[in-house]
Design a protein that fits this description.
By secondary structure, this protein is of the alpha/beta class. It is 23% helix and 27% strand. It contains six helices and 16 strands. Strands 1, 2, 3, 4, 5, 6 and 16 form a seven-stranded mixed sheet that branches. It is elongated.
């Protein structure tokens, strides 16, 4: 094989990408992992992790390092590269990065994830991981018996808001309109708790704190009145954007939110092209199910590579 010819190319090195690299390496296929940022992905933005089986009370960066060391043990090659295009090349694939470097692979596993949409207000970036969180299941338990704010008006905001009532002493739900996009049943469940308060026709102007969240400034869109809510945590749920716009043509199908559709092997509509982790359409987004997705994708990709070799071998 040439230097840039691989059997499996993995795009993204978060928990899904690193798990795929481990299993691809164990399958004894030539594997490259292309990552545009820090290996570990969103783990680097997670201060504490207490829901990954067998590793309670660890940090995101510590878990990222463990994942990376384990993956490298089995020989996967890691390269910094921002993949901007994935195209068909014969029965395989051509991957192009933003510096025009190209890589060839028999199979590709896309684990590029996505990101929660930000509010774009002062204090949000500075206090991310210090009271600002985009995952209630991940971080809710860190805010027991303290007031919490949830921002949004869709299903996710109402579901996560209700979930957070298990921990917080009070949960404010801040929504810019007076009606919700969420289903009426979710609104009803949220209202059923005596811990909740809806703050409607309101937008967040600033998240306040010094080293940790202590409150937020909220403006009423009808009256212009600004009030400050004393909270220890802010959970924005205003949407999630998957990084699924790197495919040439119609190699994949997506759901209405842009997440990639796959079968039970994590294979897309294009044979040999797989997706795992947060970029894939699924019920929930946790480290553990990213690992499970990637395990399946890597083993299925290795089987695909074997089939490609078999088909290319003269009878």
């Amino acid at each position: 094989m040439s230097d840039n010819q691989y059997e499996i190319a993995i795009v993204g090195a978060g928990p899904a990408g690193l798990s795929a690299a481990l299993y691809a390496g164990r399958s004894m296929v030539k594997t490259i992992v292309l990552e545009r940022g820090a290996t570990g992905g969103q783990l680097w933005n997670t201060a504490e992790v207490d829901n990954f089986p067998g590793l309670p009370d660890t940090t995101g960066p510590e878990l990222a390092q463990r994942f990376e060391e384990h993956a490298k043990k089995f020989g996967a090659e890691f390269v910094y590269g921002n993949v901007t295009k994935i195209a068909r090349e014969g029965d395989g694939f051509l991957l192009t990065t933003d510096d025009e470097t190209t890589y060839h692979a028999d199979a590709v596993i896309v684990t590029v994830g996505g990101e929660a949409r930000k509010l774009g207000v002062p204090g949000e970036e500075e206090l991310s991981g210090m009271g600002v969180s985009y995952c209630a299941v991940c971080d809710g338990a860190f805010f027991k018996d303290v007031p919490i704010a949830v921002v949004g008006g869709g299903d996710s905001a109402l579901e996560e808001g209700e979930y957070l009532t298990r921990f917080g002493s009070k949960v404010y739900l801040i929504h810019r309109r007076d009606k919700f996009r969420a289903s009426p049943s979710l609104v009803e469940h949220f209202d059923a708790s005596d811990k909740t308060e809806k703050v409607l026709n309101s937008v967040v102007e600033e998240i306040v704190g010094d080293g940790k969240v202590t409150g937020l400034r909220v403006k009423n869109t009808e009256t212009g009145e600004v009030r400050e809510l004393a909270v220890d945590a802010v959970f924005p749920f205003v949407g999630f954007t998957p990084h699924s716009a790197i495919f040439d043509g119609d190699l994949v199908e997506t759901d209405e939110s842009g997440h990639i559709l796959t079968d039970q092997k994590m294979e897309t509509k294009t044979p040999g092209l797989f997706a795992a982790g947060d970029v894939r359409s699924q019920f929930t987004r946790q480290i553990s199910n990213a690992v499970g997705d990637a395990t399946i994708a890597a083993l299925a990709a290795a089987a695909h590579v074997t089939e490609v070799k078999r088909a290319a071998t003269p009878a």
